[in-house]
Request: fold
Amino acid sequence: MPAASPALAGAPADEQALLAQLRRASELVSAQRLPEAEAELLGAQRVSPRDLRVLKLLALVRFKLGRLAEAGQIYREAAQVAPEDPAVRLNLGLIALKLGNSRRLCVRSPTIAGHGATSDTPMRAAHRQRRPHRRFAAPASTSWRPRWSVR
Reply:
């Protein structure tokens, strides 16, 4: 059996096994052997079910396999483990767009809630007040006519 790499020398046995599985899975993903990579990652997930590296790589594999709903579920698990991770949030949004669930994107992130961050534009304010924005309002004068008329 080959000797452990210097990076793995001080890690516990479970962590060494997990890192070895992650390395093998990454190599399989690079070689486009996605079903094998998924099997390797499922084994790594049994060792450490809430490890962020395993969850992100497993979600990526399922995304590349075209199983978007399953990838979204794994990314939601990853968001519970690391709610501040921007890559997880970005990938969740990408999956929501691809699945046509754009309503899920309208949820405010808890990281910006209460910090005065707003994306209110004049058009959104006009919509909220149920009045037309000036771009879509009727012309000011009622005698306005188009320059050319079709007869």
